[in-house]
Every structure is written in C-alpha cells, then in structure tokens.
Design a protein that fits this description.
This protein is α/β, with parallel strands linked by helices and about 350 residues long. Helices cover about 45% and strands about 15% of the residues. It has one domain: Luciferase-like domain (TIM Barrel), CATH 3.20.20.30. Strand 7 (about 170-175), helix 6 and strand 8 (about 190-195) form a beta-alpha-beta unit.
Length: about 350
C-alpha cells in the first residue's frame, strides 16, 4: 500500500505566510527522512484564511530541489482553469528536475466561486477538463500536439521539455460525482476518492463501477484506487480523540459554508448532490464524525481500520490529511506524521 500525506499549506491564525511555508516545508523534510512514499500538494485559490498553496507545481519544484527520494504528487491540479500547453510544460519541468518523481493528480474542483473568480463558467468544467487532459497527455507522449476541440485548437506544436518518465508521468483523476467513476475506469487511469463524511462502505458501489468499466475497456490490472482521508495519530487514545477535535470541527463548519455558497450560485444548485451533502454535515457531531470517513486513533487503531478498509474496498493507498482543518499545531502534525511513517506504514509495505 502506498502512503502519502495530503498537504494544503494551511494558513496559520495570527501568523505570517512566511511561517506557514516554513512549517509546511519542515513537515515535507521530515516526510523525506522518515520514508513516506508521496507528498501530495493541493491547489486552493483566493482563500487566505485557509491556505497559501495556490501554485502546486511551483511548490513541487521546491520540494524536488530539497528532497531526493519522496514522490511529489499534485492533488489536484484543477485542469479547467489551466492553459493546457503551459501546464504540460510546467509539469514536464517538475518531472525532469525531480528525477522522474512527479505524480500528476488532476480534477475539476468543487468550488464554483473559484471558476467565477477566474472568469470560467463552472458549467464548462467537464468539457474543459477532458480537453486539457487530452492535450497534456498528447504533449507529453507525442512529438507534436495536433488538437481540435471546443475550447482549444493546436496545429503541430512541440512542447519542451518532455517528461523524464516514459511514456508519461503517472496521472490520477479525482472522482466526486457517481458518473465520474466509470468514466475514469474506461479511460484506464487510477482514481482518487475524497473521504469526508458518511461511511466508508458508501464508496463500495462506486468503486465496483469504476473497476467494471476499467476491465470492460480491456485495461491491464484491476484499476487503482487511492483514498484521501482526514487522519490523525497520537500515542494514546485519549490524545488522539481530543487533539484534532477543534481542527476537524472547524473543517466541517467551513465545508458547510462552502456548500451553501455553491448552492447559491447559478448553474450549481443540483450539481453532484451538494444539497444532500450539506444536510449531512450541518448537524454533524464530533463523535459522529469519528465513526465516519476518518482515520483517527493510536497507531494500532489506525492500522486496524486501514487493514479493514483494504479488505473492504481494495484501496491501493491513502493520502493522509494529517491537519484537516488547518488548526493542528506543527509539533502535533510532526508527531502524527512520525507515528504514521514509523508504526503504521511498515505493516503494509
């Protein structure tokens, strides 16, 4: 099983952006030392109270320069907001300078406001996503890009550099809506699932649809599934329960606000079950959250829960969100990361 840490470079209340970057890089340096498989970088825009990570490929370059071993994942690059040739150039550059350590995670993002701020219609996000991904794959694997689409048209354009990894770096796609799962399976790419609230078992039917479409399209293997999940570890059950409570509940409160905002915007009212998700989290208690889609506990508790998930869902790895909500102090994030790397990860490698 692959173990990664999902990082959004959280903004720190009452502290500078410089301190936010310094703490995040200290955690990345520790992950490199302690043997973590992948560091995953978010892409978040125009939310200074939440994150300073708006340019993941720039951060990926910095990670590449200060590490030698750990893989560098993007979770996720919001493709409909990108120019396809520019993102192909930048991604290939990161792959070259990292020595072939890039994992290119892509998605559409669930924040319509970001699209509005960029001047892109959210209703165009599906079609734009497909076009940009098609062009990036072609730019990385073919001598030249020739493409005719609804939004982009290119004739015989050569992108340089090419990625170091051949035929191209690993690409994974985030899935949120039910129809996305079979679409990604048909395309033959690994899938991200974003765990938040509810039961892990709710993912089983969608994963089955993904793997059925993957097999029906004739792709080798069974289709890889990776789970991004709020995670926290401490030496005792009591500390594991109490220490992330403020941050996790802050996260759910912020999620509810973002869903309300999305539902108020034109063209998004019925998209992807947002109203249903809002109802589920508006009155969520902390104890209810801990019985749902989180991995919180001692190393043994997390190991047991992760083993059960592997058996039930057949997941191939996790993106552990060790500071979900962004309010867990740096030293506690470091402890949780160390426990994950030293006491949980070896049992699955």
């Amino acid at each position: 099983m692959e173990f990664g840490m999902f990082h959004q470079f959280p903004a720190l209340p009452g502290r500078s952006e410089r301190e936010a970057f310094e703490e995040a890089f200290a955690q990345i340096d520790a992950a490199e030392r302690w043997g973590l498989d992948v560091m995953w970088l978010a892409e978040l825009h125009f939310d200074p109270q939440r994150s300073v990570l708006s340019a993941p490929l720039s951060i990926a370059s910095a990670v590449a320069a200060r590490t030698n071993r750990i893989k560098i994942g993007i979770a996720v690059q919001v493709l409909p907001l990108c120019h396809p040739l520019r993102i192909a150039e930048e991604g290939a550059t990161v792959d070259q300078i990292s020595g072939g350590r890039l994992i290119f995670g892509v998605g559409r993002s669930g924040l319509p406001r970001t699209y509005e701020d960029y001047g892109v219609s959210y209703t165009e996000s599906r079609d734009r996503f497909v076009e940009v991904l098609d062009i990036v794959e072609q730019a990385w694997s073919q001598p030249a890009v020739c493409y005719e689409g609804k939004y982009y048209n290119f004739k015989n354009i050569t992108v340089a550099p090419k990625p170091l990894q051949k035929p191209l770096p690993p690409i994974r796609i985030a899935a949120a809506s039910p129809d996305t799962y079979p679409q990604v399976g048909e395309r033959g790419l690994p899938i991200f699932i974003n765990a938040r609230y509810g039961s892990f078992s709710e993912f089983a039917p969608e994963i089955s649809k993904y793997r059925e479409a993957y097999a029906a399209a004739g792709h080798p293997g069974h289709g890889q599934v990776y789970l991004r999940v709020p995670t926290y570890l401490a030496e005792t059950e009591e500390r594991a329960y109490s220490e992330p409570q403020e941050s996790l509940m802050h996260f759910y409160h912020e999620q509810a606000q973002r869903l309300r905002d999305s539902l108020s915007r034109a063209g998004t009212r019925a998209i992807e079950g947002r109203a249903e998700r809002l109802k589920r989290i508006e009155n969520l208690t902390y104890d209810e959250a801990l019985t749902g889609q989180v991995l919180v506990g001692t190393p043994q508790m997390v190991t047991d829960r992760l083993g059960a998930l592997q058996d039930e869902l057949g997941i191939d790895g996790i993106l552990a969100e060790l500071n979900c909500g962004g309010l867990v102090p740096h030293d506690r994030v470091m402890t949780a990361l160390h426990l994950l790397c030293e006491e949980v990860m070896p049992r699955f490698h």
